[in-house]
Amino acid sequence: MRFLSQTSSGGVTEQPFLLGEIPGVLWTPEAADPLALVLIGHGGGQHKQAPGVTGRALRLVAEHGFAAVAIDAPAHGGRPKSPEHDRLITEMRSRMTGGGDPAPVLAELHTLLAAQSVPEWRSVLDALAGLGPAGYWGLSLGCALGLPLLAAEPRVRSAVVGLSGTAMVPPGAAAGVTVPLRFLMQWDDERVPREDALTLFDALASAEKTLHANPGKHEDVPPFETDGALRFFARHLA
Amino acid sequence: MRFLSQTSSGGVTEQPFLLGEIPGVLWTPEAADPLALVLIGHGGGQHKQAPGVTGRALRLVAEHGFAAVAIDAPAHGGRPKSPEHDRLITEMRSRMTGGGDPAPVLAELHTLLAAQSVPEWRSVLDALAGLGPAGYWGLSLGCALGLPLLAAEPRVRSAVVGLSGTAMVPPGAAAGVTVPLRFLMQWDDERVPREDALTLFDALASAEKTLHANPGKHEDVPPFETDGALRFFARHLA
């Protein structure tokens, strides 16, 4: 892991890095060793320093003494897109605006991306093994790429996921997830059918899993769910 | 409201009372004025000092500086049962043990009980008007009797309800509920069909409402949901 710079503000040190060709950012407490490490998976079309990612990272570090790390998902941020990525992304957008069903294309795209991102996240865990037990926090695309990671990686011990449905995640991933989970859904999600989200929650194999459903659309997750997710990690990792 | 006795322990004062013929218990902080008042509705077959009621009351007072009040529901605790109560309770138990569908009988029983308990709770609020803004915390029977109260009583400003389904609550009650709500359901509830609980959540008219679903049966609500409910009231009433 090659750190590109280091800045500190408000008790939080931010270090962009490259791990091989993967661009990422590590946030750590300025004054003490972190209690644990939370991996943050960004949403579709976003990147490692999208406002929702940075906002979560700063609170994890400043309020709870955790470290946080985010990487650009394959084909996101400044990362290269293959012709296959381009084809699937174009097809997905065409269906989303044209009224077709994007779910089968999303599942195919997410399966392709996950095959690359799962080993990438594992190499991040290798590089940051000294930072304590790990959690994962990812919604929407971050959920679709996170579930296969949770199924494959015993070092990740708890997770906050959601804003996704059974038709949008790599097939079979949910059945391999056994860590304590919080699963968020939006009751009026315009991108995820209600039944699809409930079916995905049902398929998760974790003995401890809690569904939180709130009214509103995909982007309308209420701020108190962020507070609650922070407490969830404090309870499971600290 | 006629107080029958007063004892204090661990900073909490407990005062059993009679309000007309309604037996109740009031819990208050020993050393300061309460910040707010939480009404606790007990479950079916329970009473005002069932362990789950007293446990919640003590935490509301000791940890958050609230007052808490519980009353015996009609036909519960030491209260008289009418022949109609007896008939419905016998029929309900017969269906629950004999494999019939108890839901229609439960709806009829709960509608009968709510017609009596809603004005009773309102008279409790009249008697305790000085104790600050009010919340309501009731699961199962406590939800079935709580929703009509929430629909009728603007002094109750937030609520934690659940462990009930649309077929078990008085018809139309959910559509009149508009306060911020937390709704608990058990994903494998042997008494409340999953779809029934989801339909009841959907029918609640509150703009702010959050469904929390956890694996397990009716009695298996995880302890962290009690912690969460306490924080919910702290956020909405304190």
Question: Would you write up a description of this structure?
Answer:
Two copies of one chain form a homodimer. The longest helix of chain A is centred in the middle third of the chain and has 25 residues, at 103-127. In chain A, 39% of the residues lie in helices and 24% in strands. Chain A has a single domain, classed as Alpha/Beta hydrolase fold, catalytic domain (Rossmann fold, 3-Layer(aba) Sandwich). In chain A, strand 9, helix 5 (194-203) and strand 10 (209-214) form a beta-alpha-beta unit. The model of chain A has no long low-confidence stretch (mean pLDDT 96). The two termini of chain A are 25 Å apart. Chain A is α/β, with parallel strands linked by helices and 238 residues long. The first copy, chain A, has helices at residues 51-64, 83-98, 103-127, 141-152, 194-203, 223-237, and strands at residues 2-3, 7-9, 12-19, 22-29, 37-41, 67-71, 134-139, 156-162, 181-186, 209-214. In chain A, strands 1, 2, 3, 4, 5, 6, 7, 8, 9 and 10 form a ten-stranded mixed beta sheet that branches. Chains A and B meet through helix 5, strand 10 and helix 6 of A and helix 5, strand 10 and helix 6 of B.
Could you give a quick summary of the protein structure above?
With 238 residues, chain A is of the alpha/beta class. The first copy, chain A, has helices at residues 51-64, 83-98, 103-127, 141-152, 194-203, 223-237, and strands at 2-3, 7-9, 12-19, 22-29, 37-41, 67-71, 134-139, 156-162, 181-186, 209-214.
